[in-house]
Amino acid sequence: MAFGITATDAGLSPWETTAFSTFVFGGSAQFAAVDVIGDGGAALSAIVAGLLLNLRCLAYGVVMAPALVGPRWKRALWSQLMVDQPAALGAAQPNPDLARYAYLVCGAYLFVLWNVATVVGAIALPDAGDVVTDWGLDGGIPAIFLALLWPRLRQPDQRRTALAGAAIAFALVPFTPAGLPVVGAAIGAAAGWRSRPADADADGETDRP
Question: For residue range 74-112, what is the model confidence (pLDDT) as tens digits?
């Protein structure tokens, strides 16, 4: 709903807002794009901001590729769901079959509910921009990222990786456009590489990335 309200407040029509959620389907990238539009930026700037934020989905695709096997048309269709929550749940599963199941079920639910909520925000709550900040709805995306990250901070190397990524992102925020701090934060993964091979579970097997 917050995206529907924010997008119409930035000048998009309800139908443009609905199509945006259907065809782009990338929460933080969508918010970044409409923020640029709302500030009077050009469409190209909005597209670049969204693309930069969605570059992280390339890494998700690499992690999920072994589980998402099949003909190219099917993989292309499944890739529409390649956002944070389905990728995180899929990557946490112990085998490819469960990973595919978790990814597709979570992704399907999220796609449907995200788009339904977008329609509600854009059509039923037009010109309600103050609701987003008054109710704290603009904090939803950061809260989701934190919820996805928290269970992955059990090991020292995982915590080092997260802290390095956060430090890089905070350092880049004042000087770079939206999206680049997220991409730069991926460099923080190097902080866990050296100790990663030595980190094994009780069965002597290394944890999945």
Answer: 999 999 999 989 998 998 898 999 999 999 999 999 999
Torsion of the alpha carbons at 92, 83, 53 and 157, rounded to the nearest 10: 0
How many other C-beta atoms can be found within 10 angstroms of the C-beta atom of residue 179?
21
Tokens of 60: 């998700």
Half-sphere exposure of 115 (CA within 13 A, CB side): 16
DSSP code per residue over the chain: -HHHHHHHHTT--HHHHHHHHHHT--HHHHHHHHHHHHTT--HHHHHHHHHHHHTHHHHHHHHHTTTS-S-HHHHHHHGGG-SHHHHHHHHTSSSHHHHHHHHHHHHHHHHHHHHHHHHIIIIISTT-HHHHHHTTGGGHHHHHHHHHHGGG--SHHHHHHHHHHHHHHHHHTTTS-TTHHHHHHGGGGHHHHTTGGG-B-TTS-BPP-
The pTM score is: 0.70
Rounded CA-CA distance 171/174 in Å is 7
Q: How far, in Å, CA of 125 to CA of 83, rounded? A: 26
Q: How far apart are CA 70 and CA 82, in angstroms?
A: 16
How is the chain split into domains, by residue range?
Answer: 2-152, 159-193
Contact between residue 90 and residue 123 where contact means Cβ atoms under 8 Å apart: no
Angle between helices 84-91 and 140-149 (to 10 degrees): 10
